Amino acid sequence: MSNLFPVTLEGATLRRSGKVLVGPVNLELRAKGVTVVIGPNGAGKTSLLRMMHGIARLGGGSIRWACPPEEARAHQAFVFQQPIMMRRSVLGNLTYPLRLTGTSWSEARDRATQAATEVGLADMLDRPAPYLSGGERQKLALARALITRPELLFLDEPCASLDGRATREIEEILTRAAAAGTRLIMSTHDMGQARRLATEVLFLMNGNIHEHSSAEMFFGGSASPQAQAFLKGDIVE
Amino acid sequence: MEIWSGITEAFWLLVTLDADLVEITLRSLYVTLTALVIASAIALPLGALLAVRRFRARRITIAVLNALMGLPPVVVGLIVYVLLSRSGPFGVLGLLFTPTAMIIAQVIIIVPLIASIAHQALRELWSDYHDLLISMNTTQAQRVQALLWDGRRALLTASLAGFGRAIGEVGAIMVVGGNIDHHTRVLTTAIALETGKGEFALALGLGFVLIAMAIAVNLAIHVIGRTERGGRW
Amino acid sequence: MKRTIFAALSAALLATGAIADEMKLAVTTSFHNSGLSDILLPRIKEDTGIEVQLLVVGTGQAIKLGEAGDVDAILVHSRKAEDGFLAGGFGTHRREIMYNDFVFIGPSTDAAHVAEAESAANALARIMTAQAPFVSRGDDSGTHKKELSLWAAAEIAPEGAWYKAVGAGMGAALNTAAGLDAYIMADRASWLNFGNKGNLALLYAGDPILFNQYAYLPVNPDKHEHVETELAAKLEAWLVSDTAKALINDYKINGETLFVFNAK
Questions:
Q1: Contact B180 C12 (CB under 8 A)
Q2: Across the interface, do B146 and A96 touch by the CB < 8 Å criterion?
Q3: Per mean pLDDT, which of A54-68, B4-18, B20-34, B194-208 is the most reliable?
Q4: Residue B183: which of C15, C33, C67 has the nearest Cβ?
Q5: pLDDT at A3
Q6: Among B32, C52, C173, C236, which residue has the fewest nearby CB atoms (within 10 Å)?
């Protein structure tokens, strides 16, 4: 098993048509825990995750993993705010990432069935994925992301449009994954969720990391004034 | 009046299962379906590649494809004719005035059409899939594969459009096939021939057979693909 | 029924492969439209074993096909073009087979009084004088060339709104004439076999200048070594035989003889 961490960002910047979306970011993340990215709307949470994962091309600076970049990519997965459902069955969605890396069909099917059971979709294997409800879709997306057993999973506001029950189910899955050793980096605007899951916090403002601290310290009252204000629900700029 | 006698003629040709009619109908199907399979094998991956890949000549390729869609079949026929003629560069193959020549011409005619429609359809699918497939570290070929498989319903429509254009085409296959009886005569060239002879009823009859066959093939393909089940699938 | 389908299917599928002795013969539209080929081809197959594949085109295109070596022989009716073909070395020789004649067709009302003409040239002069619509093949075919030579002989330059060159085969040109109620020159065979006569009628025929000689010209193997010279020679022998003579002379539509065998 390769080791991605620590990962170091130096002046990492993401631009779109000349405008800086996020950065320059200087950051080092270690191998353990659940990093929660919070901050006001437009602070650059999504951009930071996409930049680190490599879906968005780096506009400047560098991101260095502890292993070669191709290897790092192979051990990551990403769950999007709007789950992207492939136009095939639940089973087809789950087996797809396995088949990409050459897993045999029968093994892929067994693992997919197992994964579906873990997220409570076992009786929906043959259903077309685009027909699932919002919560079911996100659970499927999560199971699909975890099925390759990535070392690192990015999640971009995975519960943004879900009801309480679906949110709780997703959080349970995430807690299990974290306990099993999957490194999570996740953005959220739900401070309750951040408190429940985070071991460390990245507080973003205006495309930059304003604060990087442990969850205990951040939520325990030693956060910066801006972060305090944000936590209270004030508008921060 | 003429229409009515055409319908009657078509009816009699069909109920008596006229041997010549059966022969040219089967040849029409053979030529066009073969051309369709070959053209789809070229055009569908091409359409997917154009959707997935950003290469320098992409815009030009798309523009050329769109322009070629409007290419008059008779021009294609003439080009293929000149190439396959005994005096042309591929003359030694002796392909002129054979069903193979007709297939080649039809492939050239429908590849741009199928590729263009496929590209339109898959571009939309690709914008859905883009982030996911990039995130999954897929290769170019795997992306094309995923689009072709998950977009198969839209691609079927593209192929059927190609079939429609090929089966009803007469200009090119007349030139490269020569409309030789029992050899390269198909429904459309037979219709042109009978029209030339002033046998309008028979020509119309053959025309109705052609329409009926086109509808039958469309229905058959839809049934086989069971594509009518489940909306977006 | 199953058999028919199977036979037809295999015929369609195997059509590319050479099953029997096959040769390609480019013939003029007028020859094929007359229906004579439907009589001759099965007998040729029976007597010689040769499957003659007909490419039905205008004389101009038939000559082109012969020059390119895309056919093994041509059967056409335009002396000047044939001589040019031979002069260019594209054919081995020219063999006269038979003749038919050209006729003047026009609306049965005959506003130009072509039916009263004394000669072919006179008939054309009447059409021109009346400015009556006239449809010309305009496709460089033997019939078209013949028509142009007749205008030249009558010392008339055919131009004006009444002269319509349609650039199409005999049948299509006749369809146009029927639609326009126009005059047209056609070979007798095509006319008799034409199914869409409408208001048209045969108005003038008989001038010897209207005779239409068909000749058979095998493609020169020196130019194109792949041509089926032997089959072409075999076919020629059959075309000048007594069997062919009887079939050609006895071929009638509505009781009218179409072709006169004159091979020597």
A1: no
A2: yes
A3: B20-34
A4: C15
A5: 82
A6: C236
A235 φ, ψ (degrees, to nearest 5): -80, 125
Residues of B in contact with C16 (CB under 8 A): 98-100
b/e per residue C2-22 (b: at least 16 CB within 10 A): eeeeeebbebbeebeeeeebb
Do the strands A19-29 and A34-38 form a parallel or antiparallel pair, or are they unpaired?
Answer: unpaired
Residues from chain A that touch B127, judged by Cβ atoms under 8 A, are none
* Residues of chain C neighbouring B201 (CB-CB closer than 8 A): 195
Res B204: pLDDT: 87
- CA dist B145 and A72 (Å) reads 24
Q: Domain check: are A80 and A120 in the same one?
A: no
Question: Would you state the structure tokens that stand for residue A235, as one six-digit string?
Answer: 């508008």
Q: How far is CA C212 from CA A93, B133, C142, C195, C204, in A?
A: 75, 73, 9, 22, 15
Structure tokens at B133: 């497939």
Which of A50, A47, A54, A125 has the alpha carbon at shortest distance from A92? Answer: A125
* CA distance linking residue C254 with residue C248, whole number of Å: 15
Of C219, A124, C29, which is closest to residue B86 (Cα–Cα)? C219
Q: Report how far Cα B211 is from the mean position of its chain's Cα atoms.
A: 15
CB contact under 8 A, A55 and B151: no
At C136 the three-state DSSP class reads strand
Asked if residue B230 has pLDDT above 50, the reply is: no
A87 with B151: Cβ contact below 8 A = yes
Q: Is A141 part of any domain?
A: no
Tokens describing residue A5:
């961490």
B19 → closest Cβ in C4, C56, C195: C4
Sheet holding A76-79: strands in order across? A76-79, A152-156, A183-187, A34-38, A200-205, A208-214
Pick the residue of C70, C166, C170 with the most B CBs within 10 A to test the interface with B by mutation: C70
What is residue C18's predicted lDDT score, i.e. its pLDDT? 44
Domains assigned to chain C: 21-99+211-261 (3.40.190.10), 102-209 (3.40.190.10)
Tell the CATH superfamily of the B2-225 domain: MetI-like (1.10.3720.10)
| b/e burial code for range A23-55 (CB count within 10 A of at least 16 → b) | bbbebebeeebbbbbbbbeebbbbbbbbbbbbb
Total domains, chain A: 2
* Span A150-200, pLDDT tens digits: 999 999 999 888 888 899 999 999 999 999 989 999 999 899 999 999 999
List the structure tokens of B131: 């982030």
Query: Please, which residues have CB within 8 angstroms of residue C102's CB and are 6 or more apart in sequence?
Result: C143, C146, C185, C186, C187, C188, C205, C210, C211, C212
CA-CA distance, A159 to A175, in Å (whole number)?
14
Asked whether the beta carbons of residue B19 and residue C24 sit closer than 8 angstroms, the reply is no
Considering the domain architecture, whether residues A155 and A225 belong to the same structural domain is answered as: yes
Beta strand A200-205 with A76-79 is unpaired
Percent of chain C with pLDDT over 90: 56
Nearest CB partner across the interface for A130, out of B129, B146, B232: B232
Question: Percentage of residues in chain B with pLDDT exceeding 90?
Answer: 52
List A residues 105-144 in contact with B (Cβ-Cβ < 8 A). 128, 130
Q: How far is CA B198 from CA B202, C31, C174, in A?
A: 9, 15, 8
* Helix (H/G/I), strand (E/B), else coil: C105: strand
Write down which residue in A69, A104, A131 finishes a domain: A131
State the pLDDT at residue C238: 95
Q: What is the pTM of this model?
A: 0.81
